[in-house]
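Please fill in the sequence for the structure shown.

STRUCTURE ENCODING:
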């Protein structure tokens, strides 16, 4: 069964648009923890959140709240920095996805460059997995990156579906699906679990069904956007309904 990890970052984006400084008496809204609770009630399999260095959406207290209050596995997205490593070792979420981070980007724009940085990544992966978190590396669907990811001992890769989501026309889309499928085959063959995420929405998700071995999709922006129209529970259920058509 294909699992859905709901990324709740953009519930926090909306909150931060109004409540950057919280003063006494203020009740900041919306709450990403509440969004996660609604997602869990609708049948989501996990909750994902990215604690960015610039704290543009999620704050440390949000992650602590998610870990304490939500019974689903928590997937912390983080950059490979010493501060984030210390935070993750205190939080000990079930899953950690290591992502690249660039202050100027609007969102995570490309995958990690694992090849060439294997030693540093391997050290972090080892510490996190020894503390009980399963680590995934967010990479572009590129052969060399999949091979490098396998060398770090990470249990999963998350294939970056940004290029897939931006593909224009059938040919380009088919090419991106082929790239993802080849990367998924290779990762699976090397013993890695395969997740995918970024830019997946209600309109393009079926196209991903051509990619084998998928374990979990991490989806944020489209679910939070749909939730503004129909509510969080319905938005999550609609995505889960679409996902039921997937055969690994
Ligand atoms: N997976 C990873 C590693 C991400 O960085 C993001 C974006 O924060 C997502 C999934 C979710 O992407 P989207 O918000 O476009 O669904």
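FILLED IN BY: designer on duty
SEQUENCE:
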């Amino acid at each position: 069964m294909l699992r859905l990890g709901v990324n709740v970052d953009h519930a926090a984006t909306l909150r931060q648009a109004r409540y950057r400084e919280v003063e006494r008496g203020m009740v900041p809204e919306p709450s990403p923890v509440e969004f996660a609770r609604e997602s869990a009630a609708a049948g989501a399999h996990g909750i994902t959140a990215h604690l960015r260095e610039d704290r543009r959406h999620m704050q440390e207290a949000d992650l602590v709240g998610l870990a304490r209050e939500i019974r689903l596995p928590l997937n912390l997205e983080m950059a490979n920095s010493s501060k984030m490593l210390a935070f993750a070792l205190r939080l000990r979420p079930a899953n950690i996805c290591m992502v690249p981070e660039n202050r100027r980007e609007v969102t995570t724009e490309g995958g990690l460059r694992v090849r060439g940085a294997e030693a540093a990544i391997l050290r972090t992966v080892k510490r996190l997995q020894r503390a009980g978190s399963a680590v995934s590396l967010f990479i572009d669907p590129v052969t060399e990156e999949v091979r490098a990811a396998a060398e770090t001992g990470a249990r999963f890769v998350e294939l970056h579906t940004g290029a897939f989501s931006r593909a224009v026309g059938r040919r380009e889309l088919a090419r991106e699906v082929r790239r993802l499928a080849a990367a998924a085959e290779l990762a699976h063959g090397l013993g890695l679990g395969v997740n995918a995420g970024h830019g997946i929405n209600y309109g393009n998700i079926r196209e991903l069904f051509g990619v084998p071995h998928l374990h979990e999709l991490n989806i944020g922006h489209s679910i939070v956007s749909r939730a503004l129209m129909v509510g969080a529970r319905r938005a999550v259920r609609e995505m889960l309904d679409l996902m039921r058509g997937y055969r690994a």
